Amino acid sequence: MDKQRIENAVKELLAAVGEDVDRPGLVETPERVARMYAEVFGSLDQPEAFQDYKVFPVTVDPGLVMVQQIPFYSMCEHHLLPFFGHVTIGYLPSDKKIIGLSKLGRLVDFVARRPNVQEAMTSRIVGELQRILHPQGIAVSVVARHMCMEMRGINRGDLFTYTSRYTGVFETDLAMRREFQEEARRSDGNC
Ligand SMILES: Nc1nc2c(ncn2[C@@H]2O[C@H](COP(=O)(O)OP(=O)(O)OP(=O)(O)O)[C@@H](O)[C@H]2O)c(=O)[nH]1
Ligand SMILES: [Zn+2]
Q1: CA atoms within 13 A on the CB side of 72
Q2: Of 51, 90, 130, 179, which has the highest C-beta tally within 10 A?
Q3: pLDDT tens, 69-80?
Q4: Ligand 1 atom showing the smallest separation from residue 116 Cα
Q5: 145 CA to middle of ligand 1, Å?
């Protein structure tokens, strides 16, 4: 990531909105924003595919695995404003192969830290898990608040956007899907 270029652009942006870029409160802002962008868009500096995971063999059939309400913060690619909420991930392993649970949280960070739309984020989680685990099925749901709908534009503070993707057994076996949804609902909070 080209931090100097971000700094120059932020300075230009502040000047363009009519700010005095030399006033004390703003002097360090371009550099600060460059550091912030390097953090919130950190995945852009990483390889295209998620790498930071471990897969373990298990001796028994593990059944449904779910990690619920994984918090995330991302940036909407249309307005560069935050959207944030929770992701719930479930999968039914195949070949008795499981992923380290914390790596699901790391995967969520990996997909979140780039300019995004919620639908793409949801699909990307599914795509990476498919590549890594080839499980019998994957279920992912995401609930989020979008600042571009709350603090500007339609200015609605009470909107929660829900997206989900199901593959494999979660598509074909309604009982499996219902188990995921009921378990996810039980842990449901607000964003
Ligand atoms: N599908 C989808 N749309 C999003 C997401 N984040 C923001 N948007 C929408 O992107 C759209 C961009 O629409 P435009 O008409 O180009 O932009 P705009 O004039 O700023 O639109 P308004 O937000 O309606 O004022 C808006 O409807 C946003 O609500 C997202 O994650 N998924
Ligand atoms: Zn937006």
Answers
A1: 34
A2: 90
A3: 999 999 999 999
A4: 31
A5: 13
Report percent pLDDT > 90 for the chain.
94
* Domain covering 55-186 assigned CATH 3.40.50.1950 in the classification: no
**Residue 99 token pair:** 């992923």
Is the per-residue pLDDT at 95 higher than 90? no
Q: Is the CB of 143 under 6 A from ligand 1?
A: no
Check if 98 has its Cβ closer than 6 Å to any atom of ligand 1: no
148 lines ligand 1 (CB under 6 A): yes
Sign of the alpha-carbon dihedral angle for 113, 114, 117, 119: negative
User: With contact defined as beta carbons under 8 Å apart, do 137 and 176 qualify?
Assistant: yes
CATH topology classification for 3-40: GTP Cyclohydrolase I; Chain A, domain 1 (1.10.286)
46: its two tokens: 């990483």
76 is annotated as contributing to ligand binding: yes
Instruction: Report pLDDT for 67.
Output: 97
Domain ranges of the chain: 3-40, 55-186
Whether 190 has a pLDDT exceeding 70, the answer reads no
